[in-house]
Amino acid sequence: GREGHYRRGGFLIVVITLSQLYNSETQTLINKAAARRNNDFENMVKAKKEEETTVENGDVAIDDSKLERPNYEELITQMNIIAKPLASKKMTKKIYKIVKKAAKAKQLRRGVKEVLKAIRKKEKGIVIFAGDVSPLDVYSHMPVMCEENKLPYCFVPARIDLGLASQTKRATCVVLVKKDDAYDSSFTELRDRIKEMPLPL
C-alpha cells in the first residue's frame, strides 16, 4: 500500500536524479567539446591571418637554429637574379649598423607593405633589399618604383641578417631607412655611395 507507494516514488526520484545527472554531465562534455572546437577555429583563423601578413610583407619568422650565420661569400651564392646593385662585404656591415640605429630611433619602415606605403607617401630615405627573397613577385616591382621616386637602393645578401639588424625576430626582405640626427653623417655618406652604384640595365 502506502509503503510500496513511497518505495516506488523513491525509485522514481532516484531515476529522475540519475537521468538529470547524466544529462548534465553529457551537456558539460558537449560544451567542452564545442569550446575546444571554437578555440581550434580561433587559432586557425589567427594562424591564417599571420600567414597572410607574412606573405604580404615578405617576412618570415627567424629560426633560432639559423642564428649562426654563414659568411658573406656563402650568402651571395644564394641570391636571386634581380639582386643588383649589391653592397660589398664592407658596405653591408655599414648598412646593418645604420639599419639598427634607424630601428632604435624609430626611423625605419620594414616589410613590403610598410615600405610601399612610405614610397607612395613620398617619404625620403634609403631602400635596402635582401637578395635571397623568393618568390620574386614579393618585391620585384619595387626597384623600379624606387628609381621613379629617386630613392637610392641596393641589395644585401640575406633577409635574416636584415631582419636582425631591424631589431626584429622576423626575416625582412626590404626596409626604408629615414634620415635622423643620431646617424646623420653616416647616413649621408651611405646614401651618396649607393647613388654612385650602377643600376641594372
General description of the model:
It is found in: Nucleus, Nucleolus. This is H/ACA ribonucleoprotein complex subunit 2. By secondary structure, the protein is an alpha+beta fold. It contains seven helices and six strands, in the order H-E-H-H-E-H-E-H-E-H-E-E-H. It has two domains: 1-52; 74-196, Ribosomal protein L30/S12 (60s Ribosomal Protein L30, Chain: A), CATH 3.30.1330.30. It has a four-stranded mixed sheet with strand order 2-6-3-4, with helices on both faces. A two-stranded antiparallel ribbon has the order 1-5. Helix 3 packs across helix 6. The longest helix has 56 residues, at 2-57. It starts with a helix and ends in a 5-residue tail after the last helix.
Please describe the structure with a list of short key phrases separated by commas or semicolons.
RNA-binding; 2 domains; 60s Ribosomal Protein L30, Chain: A; two-stranded antiparallel ribbon; RNA binding; H/ACA_rnp_Nhp2-like; 201 residues; Ribosomal_eL30-like_sf
Summary of the model, kept short:
The chain is α+β, with helices and mostly antiparallel strands and 201 residues long.
- In whole angstroms, the N-to-C terminal distance is 108 Å
Mean pLDDT: 82
Fourth-level CATH superfamily of the largest domain: Ribosomal protein L30/S12
- The level of helicity is 55-70%
Number of strands: 6
Q: Which series of helices and strands comes N to C? A: HEHHEHEHEHEEH
Cα-atom radius of gyration: 30 Å
CATH class bucket of the largest domain: Alpha Beta
Structural class: alpha+beta
How are strands sequenced across the largest beta sheet? 2-6-3-4
Shape: elongated
Examine the coordinates and then state which fold CATH places here, giving the name of the CATH topology of the largest domain: 60s Ribosomal Protein L30, Chain: A
Largest sheet properties: 4 strands, mixed
- The fraction of residues in strands falls at 5-15%
Q: Could you say how many structural domains there are in total?
A: 2
Low-confidence segments:
51-56
Instruction: Please tell me the CATH architecture of the largest domain by its name.
Output: 2-Layer Sandwich
Number of helices: 7
